[in-house]
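Help: read this over?
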Amino acid sequence: MLPNALKKIFSDLDSKVGVVDTLVLTDAFGWSRTEYMQSQDLNEFVLVLFSSLEEILHERITNVVDSTLTTFIKTLSGETMKSREEKNRVISLCVKNFRTLYESFDDLLKDELLDGDNQYQNDNYQKVDARKGMEITSLAPTLLLNLVRYTFDYNTFNMVKVTDRLDYPEELNLSKYTKNKNDVYTLIAVTTHVGSVNSGHRYQYARPYSNTQDWYEFNDSKVTQVSAKVALEQVHTAILLEYVRTSEITEYLDKTKELVIGSKFQDTMFCFEK
């Protein structure tokens, strides 16, 4: 069971010195001993991970990671003709042709004009000019931002990796998109990928403690302390960014250990023997 495997790993990380075996986690995914050496889709992993945790922790997970985005079609005067809210645990942002994370957000939330041959047919079966787009309804305390670095090349008919530079800030202010002054976030983790579309190596930079500015590079069995500057320099290889709302960062980081290996989590799960 995946949540039990996570509990064992975090418990071992908390109590042991040295490298912690992760086979219990890959076994919980149902992977064979050869499959765990293959490159797996990061987004799929994240979604499966949180879905499994939701079975145990319920709203304690959904309240932390679920943002709400609304797709809409509006008249040119602003009247909503159609809308749909969707929960998003991972927000995907384009990298190609953009220089900063803010530019990627602008692209995600820009309107498309429906006019001419592309007019919208309303409920009265009339063709009208309209605007189609997406807006942020609410943001979760934790943001997982997928930087889309894989795209289809119509010239070669192959998937290619985008290595364009995309700058991301240590402090991310999204209040202009939400009109909520509290939607200011602090970077706590950067996952990178070095290699090609079909092969390569992932590693992560993370800031695990709220009371220090210490960052660490997690590269398989090797963990090295690094500066925040190093974590912010992965502008050509970053594929997943994790931000936490700045006003909640102390509570978030300090309570993660209690949630995963403490009594609240333990109440609903059996303990592994060490």
User: Anything to note?
Assistant: Residues 136 and 178 are 6 Å apart (CA to CA). The chain is about 30% helix and 35% strand.
